Amino acid sequence: MKTFVWHPALLAVLLSAGLSAHAQIGGRTVNLTRGSLCVTEGEIGADAGNRLTVETTKMRAYVNTWTSDAVEARFTYLGGTAQESALGSGEVRRQFGLKLRAQNACNLVYAMWRFEPESKVVVSIKKNPGQTMSSECGNRGYQNIKPHRTGPVPHLKPGDAHTLSAALHGNAMQVSIDGTPVWEGDLGPEAGDLAGPVGIRSDNTRLAFDLKAGAAAGMHPDFRIACKSGPGVSD
Known about the structure:
16 strands; 235 residues; 3 helices; 9-stranded antiparallel β-sheet
């Protein structure tokens, strides 16, 4: 694993954006409930303590309220699902991640914590101009972004609890685990024209979690984002 080495250009961007070296999402936040989520694939439930839960092999959801480009999940890893589902590439992973600027199923940003077969954080842009439905783009258009700075990522066992957060300031992105940055980089112009809500995704992973996002700044429409679910719009 690469040790932390500041890239001068990125440091200037992060400092101007107000990011600190050990920060989770700051400012006003919004606690997100099951009613705040549009689940496009799989199911999200709730446990006796009112935490959100996932038991299905695939879960995809986005937040249907207005937030900033910052999202955080405090989760307990409960292990793998009884059945496993392969990705479009044919690979089988256990993973949980956050979505930002989820414009549609074909154009968005991912910050994925891959639990198995190797524990690591990967940031990707999925970009398919002119396409909006998964039936159009499938698993095409992914680009893994090379970070300027990384940190160690814990290995998970059932029962472990962690906080995963991601924030975008312009095109500068920071992903943190338990408040410590593990991925920082610049997404470049490919992310600059994306616009959409934050969200979550899991594959072959059982979880209990609390979710929150940064509060939207300035004026915005006072209504929920329409929920469009089903295989055609699931990413």
